[in-house]
């Protein structure tokens, strides 16, 4: 359910707020930070009623951040002529920043939950997952910093593009991290973990297929252009 809610929110954001998001990104960053602050306040006060059960997993379980990150990554795997790609690419940087902001709630919750557990009863699975989480936080911080317009304008285009390629290992490590956390519960038969792992796996598999297809198409195009150039030269 939380993935569906997060997807609806993300699609609505892209469909209704594309132009305002591009023109006034600071307003949306502030709203995202306010929602994370609301999550912290509600968690501290043990909120339970109203829309809280639906809002809680969007931040705590990283559902909204995951969907936003996925939209950003999928945009790069779509055809150049795709209208959806063009719409997403126009606000890709802004969506990335918002995803990072929403991820803060997830990071804080699980750091407070798992770090003491690992310290008290360390296991290989949890320790590896924590190590991956640390790498993810470091990569996310770099991607967040370079997604900010003030930082982007100070970097050379080639340097900025090089740093942004870190999004690929970040996305891959995110799946590995989630799988390590969910797999033990999924194997033990817990339905929630099994459904979550299935959803994550399906999303990442679709992305891998689309990205591989795009890479093969670009390679084939490059070979065709090179062949034509040789023919014309001869």
UniProtKB/TrEMBL annotation:
<feature type="domain" description="Ferric oxidoreductase">
    <location>
        <begin position="64"/>
        <end position="174"/>
    </location>
</feature>
<dbReference type="Pfam" id="PF01794">
    <property type="entry name" value="Ferric_reduct"/>
</dbReference>
<protein>
    <recommendedName>
        <fullName>Ferric oxidoreductase domain-containing protein</fullName>
    </recommendedName>
</protein>
<keyword id="KW-0812">Transmembrane</keyword>
<dbReference type="GO" id="GO:0016020">
    <property type="term" value="C:membrane"/>
</dbReference>
<feature type="transmembrane region" description="Helical">
    <location>
        <begin position="193"/>
        <end position="210"/>
    </location>
</feature>
<feature type="transmembrane region" description="Helical">
    <location>
        <begin position="58"/>
        <end position="78"/>
    </location>
</feature>
<feature type="transmembrane region" description="Helical">
    <location>
        <begin position="170"/>
        <end position="187"/>
    </location>
</feature>
<keyword id="KW-0472">Membrane</keyword>
<dbReference type="InterPro" id="IPR013130">
    <property type="entry name" value="Fe3_Rdtase_TM_dom"/>
</dbReference>
<feature type="transmembrane region" description="Helical">
    <location>
        <begin position="126"/>
        <end position="149"/>
    </location>
</feature>
<keyword id="KW-1133">Transmembrane helix</keyword>
<feature type="transmembrane region" description="Helical">
    <location>
        <begin position="99"/>
        <end position="120"/>
    </location>
</feature>
């Amino acid at each position: 359910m939380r993935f569906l809610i997060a997807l609806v929110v993300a699609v609505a954001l892209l469909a209704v707020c594309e132009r305002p998001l591009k023109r006034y990104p600071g307003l949306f960053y502030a709203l995202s930070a306010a929602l994370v602050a609301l999550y912290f306040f509600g968690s501290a006060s043990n909120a339970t009623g109203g829309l809280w059960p639906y809002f809680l997993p969007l931040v705590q379980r990283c559902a909204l951040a995951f969907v936003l990150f996925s939209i950003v990554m999928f945009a790069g795997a779509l055809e150049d002529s795709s209208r959806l790609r063009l719409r997403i690419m126009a606000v890709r940087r802004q969506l990335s920043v918002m995803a990072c902001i929403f991820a803060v709630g997830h990071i804080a919750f699980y750091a407070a939950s798992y770090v003491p557990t690992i310290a008290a009863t360390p296991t290989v699975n949890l320790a590896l997952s924590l190590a991956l989480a640390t790498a993810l936080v470091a990569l996310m911080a770099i991607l967040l910093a370079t997604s900010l317009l003030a930082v982007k304008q100070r970097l050379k285009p080639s340097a900025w593009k090089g740093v942004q390629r870190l999004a690929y290992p970040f996305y891959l490590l995110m799946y590995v991290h989630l799988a390590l956390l969910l797999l033990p519960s999924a194997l033990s038969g817990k339905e929630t973990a099994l459904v979550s792992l299935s959803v994550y796996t399906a999303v990442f598999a679709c992305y891998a297929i689309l990205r591989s297809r795009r890479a093969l198409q670009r390679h084939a195009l490059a070979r065709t252009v090179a062949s034509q150039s040789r023919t014309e030269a001869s």
